[in-house]
Amino acid sequence: MYDKGFIDGCFDGFHYGHANALFLSKQNCNNLIAATHSDNEIFFHKKSNPLFNYKTRKLFLQNCKFVDKCINETPYNTTNEIIKQLNCDIFFHGSDDIDKPILKKINDAGNLHVYNRTSGISTSDILLRIYNYKNGRRIYTNQDVTYLRHIFINMNNYLNKNIKYDKIVVLKCSWDLINETHIELLNEIRTKYIGYYIFIDLLSDNSGFIFNKYETAIVLISLKQVDKVILYDDINENNFKEIITINTSYKCNSDNQFDDKISKMSIVDYIHKIDINKYINKFDKLLLDIDVFDYNIYKKILKSQFDTILSIIQTKNILKNDHIVFDIDEVCLCNLMYFNLNINIKTFGNKIYNYENGFIPINNECIELFNYLHENNIGYSFITGRQDYIRNITINNLNMVGLSKYHKLFTRPDNCSVGLFKENSRKILSEEYNIIYCIGDQLTDISGDNIGCPILIFNPYYTTK
Q1: How many CB atoms lie within 10 A of CB 408?
Q2: Which of 133, 179, 251, 274 has the maximum number of C-beta atoms within 10 A of its C-beta?
Q3: Is the dihedral of CA 446, 447, 449, 453 positive or negative?
Q4: Could you tell me the sign of the dihedral formed by the alpha carbons of 21, 25, 31, 33, in that order?
Q5: Which DSSP string do the residues of 11-44 spell out, in sequence order?
């Protein structure tokens, strides 16, 4: 545990990825200092203006539970000198772009702590959602409920101090992209109802325009003004001395409802004031990928590859101690809809993809290969980038689709990068087996030591963020 840590970023369109980054950083230090960059600094480096101005972006940092101190604008690229000037022990940064020379210098000086980047969200992704909304297209939020719940519950457990809730104010709302107006309202309620805890009820909110209720809940629970977000259970009135309910859906001047400040700046107002054309180049390719997706072509590509892999293995003289390593997602299990959520596969629905427990179907194209391995007692194991918190779900999933005869399953700890984790896992596996093939769809599956003969599964539609 470090004494004082520093994190910076654009923090544009404050979303659950930002909240989680601050949460992961705070878990590793007693005092977290945060900063964002000026509008001009962001424009200079990204060649486009941020969605939200500096004042608004800083406001969210100032109102985040996990930030102990928010300082004024900082340069886009942090250096060892800046870390020293701030008297910080460590600089927190996401696992993306850690190979940049300036970050390498910080790492070489022992001043870098890398956290796992939150999947399924980015400012560009928000822009895509806004673009779809403005053009009458379907909006794709993060449907990986298991992952979102994991983040939400972790935050709740970390913040839970066995508080005895006595008097509460319950806000019933369907807030979407959280902005300064919501902060203003929460501050007003906190001022008016001194001694009350603020609960936010999102039970009736299945999804908003831009974010679903889980994505919104993570942002809300990270705010200093919010004591609890209700997602899974109703409020038992017998547990409290006093409950005041505020419905933010209406303008009202009565004692328990607020007036026009509630809807002064809604998500629709934000959407309509954005000139989305300035940002189209950021997600042009992604839109193209969605438009050109053809499920039949996708299946043909997979089948041709697995047929080739099977023929290669059939000609190999495989010994008793020989072993094959597989990735899971998009190699054995068809995970397109689970992670690459911007593609709508009409062939699959919730009856096959169950987001609540993480179950997803097998790629039929790999079944013949695994049947051959089982019939000939050829050993295999899985090394997956899936994290430990869904290990049991993954085990159940593999059992249900007939892939239960593996020797070992390696799932990734929260604090380890994918590449390092997979290389270390292969090293452990190689102490017991002779790895002859590594089969996966990412470079981390087939690069480094102990890979035997590497086989890369090509998938033109699968992307990771």
Answers
A1: 16
A2: 179
A3: positive
A4: negative
A5: -TT--HHHHHHHHHHHTTEEEEEEEE--HHHHHH
Q: How far apart are CA 101 and CA 177, in angstroms?
A: 35
| DSSP at 359 | B
Determine the Cα–Cα distance for residues 398 and 411; give it in Å rounded to an integer: 13
Distances (CA, A) of 260 to 240, 257, 379: 29, 10, 66
Same domain, 155 and 110: no
- Structural domain range at position 428: 293-456
Q: Each residue's pLDDT tens digit in the chain (465 positions)? A: 899 999 999 998 899 999 999 999 999 999 999 999 999 999 898 877 888 889 999 999 999 999 999 999 899 999 999 999 999 999 999 877 777 888 889 998 999 998 888 877 888 788 878 877 777 777 778 777 788 888 988 888 777 666 778 888 888 887 888 888 889 889 989 998 998 999 988 865 555 578 888 899 999 999 999 998 887 666 666 677 788 888 775 334 445 555 444 444 455 666 666 666 666 555 554 444 445 556 677 788 889 999 999 999 999 999 999 999 999 988 998 876 554 444 555 444 444 555 556 678 888 899 999 999 999 999 999 999 888 888 988 999 999 899 999 999 999 987 777 888 999 999 999 999 999 999 998 888 998 889 999 999 987 665 544
- Per the domain annotation, does 114 fall within a domain? yes
Q: How far, in Å, are 96, 137, 187, 411 from residue 327 at the CA level? A: 21, 33, 48, 10
Which amino acid does the sequence have at 71?
A: I
Phi and psi dihedrals of 292, rounded to 5? -95, 0
Residue type, 219: V
What are the phi and psi torsion angles at 330 (to 5°)?
A: 70, 5
Rounded CA-CA distance 71/59 in Å is 11
Among 240, 273, 306, the domain-final residue is 273
- Phi, psi at residue 90, to the nearest 5°? -155, 150
Burial environment of residue 160 by CB neighbours within 10 A (0 to 12, 13 to 18, 19 or more): exposed
* Of the residues 118, 133, 165, the one at which a domain ends: 118
